[in-house]
Structures are given as C-alpha cells and as structure tokens.
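Deviations from the work plan: none for this task. Representative record:
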Amino acid sequence: MTTIATDPPRNGPSPLERSYSRLGMLLIAPTIVVFSAVIVYPLLAAIYLSVFSIYTPTLEGEFVGADNYIEMLTGGVFWSSLLTTLIWTVGTLSLQIVFGVGLALLLHQNIWFRSLARSLVLFPYFLSTVVAVLVWRWLFNDLYGALNHGLMQVGIIDMPLDWLGSMPNAMIGVILVGAWKYFPFVVIAVLARLQTIPENLYEAARIDGAGPIARFWDVTLPQLRSVLTVIILLRAIWDFKEFDLLYLLTGGGPVTSTQTLSLLVYQEAFSLNRMGQAAAYSVGMMLVMLVFMILYIRRTKEES
Amino acid sequence: MTKTTGMKTGLNRRSVLTGMAAAGAAAVMPRRLYAQEQITLRWWSPQSSPEQLAAYRTQIANFEALHTNVTVAFERTSDEGYAPQMAAAFASGDVPNIVTHLPSFAVSNYWSNGLVEPFNDVIEMIGPEKFYDGVNRIYEIDPGQYAGTSIGNSAANTMWLRTDLMEQAGIDRNPRTWDELLSAVDKMQGGGIYGAPLPYGRNSMTSLIFIGTIHQAGGMVFSPELEVAIDSQETRDALEFYGAMRQYCPPGATNYSWGDSLTAFVAGATATGIYTGRVLTNVMDQNPSIADHITCDVFPTKSTDIAPWTFNDFPSVFIPKAASNMEATKQFAAFLYDPEGYIQQLHAAPGHVLPVLSTIAEDPAYLADPIIQKYKAEVDIMSAAAADGFNLGWESPEHKPNTRAGEVVNSGVIAEMVQRVILNDENVDEVLSDTARRIEEIAQS
C-alpha cells in the first residue's frame, strides 16, 4: 500500500490570495473614502450637532444632551410638519403615478407624433425647479394669472381664487405642481416596462374575451407591479425630502400649513440660527426616511 | 585662541551660497510678489436691479482704476435669502469682504456675536460730519463702537395713492387715520381695482409692515428695556385694522411679499400701495400712464394723536471680521460714498434708497435726476419720514438696540400671528399669548 505525498495543510491564504486581497482593498478604497466623506461624515456630524445648542453663524455652543430630541418629541411642531410632509408626499405621489401610468399607456399606443410627444413629456422633469415655480406662480397669480383668467372666462368662478395663500388651495396647489414636475419620471420608467410586455399575453387575453379595461387590470398592471413598486419607493423618498419647490411656492405658508420637515429644518438652522435643534429634526426625519429605505433595499434584494 | 581665517569681508562659504540663493530668489520675486498683491474683494448685496448693478460697476471700475492690484467681485443675495447665506458664510469662514443693504438689525445681531469688524475707521475716512444727524446711532451698539453704517435711508411703509382714483371717488385729501384709509379704499375699490396690496404672506414683508402697524396703533413689540410687549391692546387694534383691510386687498395678498405688492400698485391693480420710493422708477418704466396720478404719504395711524411710524431698515454697509485684506476692504467701503458712484447708485432707484450724507442730498448732480425733479414733493416726504424712521432693532429713541430683532423677523413669528388671526380666524388672545411666548424664547435663546 502506498500513499501519495501531499502538501501540508495551509494555515492561511496563499501569497497570491493575499495579493488579490490587497488589490481588492486598494480598488475599493476610493469608494470607501468618498462614501465616508459624503455620507458617513455628514451623518455623524448631524448626530453630533444634535446634542448641542449651536448658534449657526459661529457653530459655537454648549452640550445639551437629549434636550433637542425632547423638544422635538414634545414640541408639536415636528409632528405637525411630519403630518404635512406625509400629506404632501402621498398626494403628489398618487397623482404622479396616475398621470404617469396614464400617459405612458397613451404614449405606448400608435398615435401621431409619438416620438415628439415622448420627448415633450419629459420637459417638466428637465426644467429647473426655480423656473418651473416662477411659471406656476405666474399662472396662479390672482391679478394677471392665466389660470384664474381662464376659469373666470369659462364662468367656473366669479372672482380670482387665492391658490397659494389659503388652505386647502395652497396644499392642492403644491401637490399639483409637484405632480406636474415629477410625473415624467414615472412615464419613462413605465413606458420602458410596457415595451417589454410580451404581445402574446394580450392576444391570449383577447381570445379569452377580455376588453381593454380587463386587459389593463389582468395583464398590464401585474406586469408593471415590480417597476411601480420601485418607482413608488424611490419617488416617496425624493418627495419626502423635497425642499426647493415647496419653499419657493409657498414658503411653508399659510401659517405652517405647507411646512414640511425639510422647511422646518431650514427654518431652525438659518432663520432661527439653531443648528443643534435643526440637526435633531433632521435626524428624526432621517429615521422616518429609513423606513422607506429599508423597504426599498428589501424590494431590490427580492428583485435581484 | 583661534582666529577665523575666512575672507576679509567676514563672509564664509555658507554665507556666500546663502546669499547667492537669496539673490536668485530675489530675481524671480517681483513677479511673485506682484501676483501675491493682486487681491479680490467680494461684495454682497440683496439690492441688484439692472440699474443698481450698472451703478455698482461704475463704483467698482473707479475703485479698480485707483488701485490696480484690486479686483472687486459683486455677488447677489436677496432680502429673503441673506440670512442663510450669511450664516453659511460665517460658519465656513468664507465670508465676503463687504456686505451692503442688509437691515441694521441683522448687522447688530452679527455684531453681538463678534462677527463684525468695527466700522469706526471707515466712518472717519468718509467724514462723520457729512452724515445726517443720528444716521450712525443705530449702529452704535456698544458705546463708541460702530458695527457699520447706513448706505442709505428707506421708507419701507410709505403709502402710495392714485390721485385720479381719489378724485373720482371724491376724496380730497390723503388719509391720515385708519378710519379715513378704510373709507378711502372702500370708495376706490371696484371696476377690477382693489383698495390696497397689504401683505398677508408668511414672509418678512408681512412681519415688517405689521410691526409698523403695531406702532401706528401706539404699541410696540419690545419695551424700551427690551421686554416683550406685543401682547397688548394696541396689537389687538392693529390686528383688527389689518383684518378690516383684508377685504380691500387682492385674493392673492395672502401670499404677497415685496415684489407682488409693488407690482400690484405699479400695474394699476390697486388704488393704494405700500412700498419704498422704488414705486417711482417702476411706474415710469413699466406703467407711465399712471405716472402723473401718483403721490405718497406716511402711512396712517389709528388716530391723529399718534405720530406716524416709518419703517426704515437703515440699509447697511458692514465688514465681516473674518474678511481678508482688511485695509483694502475698508478703503473700498469708504469709496462707496464717493460722490460719482454713490449718486449713480442712488439714481438707480430714485427715492428707493435715500442719501445719508447731507453733502450728497444737496449736491446738484443728485438733484438733477428727472424722477427726483418730477417727484420732488414725494421724495421730500420719504426723506423726512425715513430720517425719523425706526425698525425692530431700534423701535424708538428710548429703546435699547435690539440684537435679536433679525431672528424675530426671520422666524416669521409675527407674520404667522397675522395669518393665524386674520386668515385662520383663531382666537386673538391665544395667538397673542403664543406669539409673545415664542418671541420671548427667541430673545432669550
């Protein structure tokens, strides 16, 4: 009986493996550095600032422990702004989905000037928010705005409506503008998915006697489910932290009726110069957003 | 004892080499030094209409011609946006060299936090005797120390009137009291024209105009000792008047700020207006058809025994303490008052920013402006009102400088009070109590 000599068992990685490992670390290092600089550092800085009472222009202050968080949880303004944020997010997101899916279905049909229409529909999304808000403020203007003028011309209203200065008009106004600005994102994503749905599914549905509505519910919508889930989660995150559109349209008013959490953080940090309290609010906001993010991450894992 | 055996000059080899190296460095030094001496001064201002920018360019060009190694870069900010921009600049240490046209109460807040360079040198360079009496007082927050000075005066709550509409309505004199104003706007409103463009938005204009309204009722926001005094009968009266005016304002006044209010009057959509003298140049440029039918007056008060109260934000010039090239910066700050450029700056919006130097106000070159000549009476009214003007940083001659005024205005707490009572119809007592508490918190924070 003979035995074949073998190498003694290795206790650690080979030189080649160690070399690959070092190379891997080297290659990933820039990403880690950038990620740390733009994500980890601001995050830790916000948490650090939130336990201090800090005057914004000097960034000097004193340690106050959990006082800022206690004020956040007991003060009421955080909760009312959170409610406003949720109303805005749900309202504008719902319209974005409805308009976006509707227009994507339309643009999926063989209509005249389809290519031109597909290009033009992206226009609001590419337009600068400042420009978009200026246009909409002009449209909403009570004295020379086209919207009031048009409604009065067709006899729907007798007097100009106060679109942005009273409730519920102000919230409806910002929700409408938000939906107009961001629905093209939904159109792009849904249209891309629509073009990949196999035609034979529709043929089978037709043979089974399904009409257009039944085909939409039984074929199109199930096929869109995965992409819609991702769109809803992404847009929910983006709408939740929307700042410029709301700030420029209403400034959070009337009173605080359209003051979302982003506007609250801004006001605390720069109007009241209370950077510590602003940081506490932003940490609170981040925790709420974490729910969306976890859902998104879980969803994308399932997809992969 | 060992004697050094070096050269007779006393220079050893090391010294010679060092000297050669120094000479070599010196040969290239002029260019480098020259390059180092080239400096850029950054100038921030929220006032940046095209005409004002043209005036600034003149001032910059004249200064750069005198100082060839200096470049001045103008950067815009805004009335609603300067607070965050300044906060970010101070926090980062990347501050502009000079800031103009911010309200005095903003400067006093920065001063109280040690962020502003004393301005005494600049005032000396300009010549303190040239300023109108009392112009610099509001900037003397600590005795003998000036945080800045005014680059102009303004009468922010001047009441503008359409004389043709007054005539049509049978109104023979400018309203002096609130009752007269309410009666006048009631008569003039109609035919697509509203009575007034008072602001009810959640912004600084609503806060500033309503602070004036409280004073026009005989009240105040802070007592002379800077105790919160807003919860008073006078504020209730002011809210009642302001609420009564709502029916005479356009529907969108609930979101009006400076630009909207100005445009409403200039466009001819309202019979009265409330703004500085910028109305004059805008009417001439944008709606000359009403140019012969406008006049102005101080805003009415609750009764004739209450003196008018004009909101003058004392548009400032100040230098952040962390600014670089301090000597050049101070020279430029003083140069802003050089007659040629200063007069062009004032002419950029005649009557909007009024001169603070008596030598300029009497200068024929200043008086030669066609708008100032056409509206001499109106400019005189605004000049007199602004000279007796106040703001939240200094509510009366008896008041101490209020270094928290900027934060009170920027917090929007006063505008919110107006909206809660007038738009939301909330209980006045509760809102006033809440407002007083919030102002107290800001004042003590």
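The interface with chain B takes residues 55-59, 140-144, 159-166, 170, 250-256, 266-267, 269-274 of chain A (CB under 8 Å).
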